[in-house]
Write a structure and sequence with these properties.
112 residues; alpha+beta; two-stranded parallel ribbon; 5 helices; 17% strand
């Protein structure tokens, strides 16, 4: 989560982390192009179909939608890894890199 960094509860990020990231997008003029994926995506986000590869799901507490394990198993027939976290949000790889990397390793460990 980004907003707690500005209200005294960083949860993995400091105010400087957030401001550095915003400044990077501002100075390089890449804020709008980085949001293009969201603008152009016309698919229903929760209508997953045709995923035939092994999948791992990390459900971070403050993400916009925390996919329940039951939904994940239905949406991804080859679900090999699922983990819920009590912290982290939409930018989990940035906010909680240790947890995120453990989940990525756990996913790939199961498909070796």
């Amino acid at each position: 989560m980004i907003w707690p960094a500005f209200f005294g509860n960083p949860g993995g990020l400091s105010r400087d982390d957030v401001l550095d990231n915003v400044t990077l997008y501002w100075l390089t003029n890449t804020g709008i192009p980085s949001a293009r994926l969201y603008w152009e995506n016309k698919l229903d986000f929760f209508d997953v179909k045709g995923v035939t590869v092994s999948v791992g799901v990390s459900a971070f507490r403050y993400e916009l939608y925390q996919a329940p394990e039951s939904w994940s198993k239905t949406a991804y027939p080859k679900l090999v890894y699922y983990k819920r976290h009590d912290i982290g949000g939409h930018f989990a790889a940035w906010e909680q890199p240790q947890l995120f990397s453990e989940d990525v390793r756990g996913t790939f460990r199961s498909v070796r």
